[in-house]
Design a protein that fits this description.
Blueprint (H helix, E strand, L loop, with lengths): L5 H6 L7 E4 L3 E5 L9 E5 L11 H22 L3 E5 L15 E6 L17 H12 L2
Antiparallel strand pairs: 1-2, 2-3, 3-5, 4-5
Helix pairs in contact: 2-3
The structure holds guanosine-5'-monophosphate and zinc ion.
Length: 137
C-alpha cells in the first residue's frame, strides 16, 4: 500500500467508497464525479501507478473485473453502451496516480464526450451502488 494514495486508502477501507465489486486482486467502486450515474473505477488492490507499471497478473485481473462490471452496469442501469477508458500519466489527463480503468455507462443521445463528470444528486450515490450490487448477486 502507498500511504499517500487515495485509491490505496479506499482499497484499505481507510476512506469511504461505494464499492460494487471485489475479488482477490481488484476492487471496483463508483467515481464521485460520474460522466453518467454508475460510472465505476476498477483498480488493482496492489498499488501501481499506471499501465506502464502494472504487472501482467494485475492487468489481466483488472480487465476481467472491468468486463464483469460492464455486464453489471448494463443489467442494472439498462445502458445502451459502455465506454472503457484509462488515462495514463499527467500528459494523458491522469489525476489519481493509482492505475484505474473507467467503466462508463452510456445512453442513446449522449454527446460523444461527457467529460467532465458531475457529482450525484442527493441520495443517488448510494442508491446507484445498491442497484449495481444487486445485479452482481
Ligand atoms: P483520472 O486520474 O483517470 O483522470 O481520473 C480520476 C477519477 O477519480 C476522476 O474521474 C475523479 O472523479 C475520481 N475521483 C477523484 N477523487 C475521488 C474520490 O475520492 N473517490 C472516488 N470514488 N472517485 C474519485
Ligand atoms: Zn495506490
Amino acid at each position: 500500500m502507498n500511504t499517500d494514495c487515495l485509491f490505496c486508502k479506499i482499497a484499505a477501507r481507510e476512506l469511504p467508497g461505494q464499492i460494487i465489486y471485489e475479488d482477490a486482486e481488484t476492487l471496483a467502486f463508483l467515481d464521485i464525479n460520474p460522466v453518467n450515474p454508475g460510472h465505476a473505477l476498477v483498480i488493482p488492490k496492489k498499488h501501481s501507478a499506471d499501465v506502464f507499471e502494472i504487472d501482467d497478473k494485475d492487468w489481466i485481473a483488472v480487465m476481467r473485473a472491468s468486463r464483469i462490471v460492464a455486464h453489471a452496469l448494463e443489467k442494472a442501469l439498462k445502458t445502451d453502451g459502455i465506454n472503457l477508458g484509462m488515462n495514463n500519466r499527467a500528459g494523458a489527463g491522469q489525476v489519481v496516480f493509482h492505475a484505474h480503468v473507467h467503466v462508463m455507462p452510456r445512453f442513446a443521445g449522449d454527446p460523444h464526450s461527457l467529460w467532465p463528470g458531475k457529482p450525484y444528486a442527493e441520495g443517488e450515490f448510494a442508491k446507484t451502488a445498491d442497484k449495481i450490487r444487486s445485479a452482481l448477486t
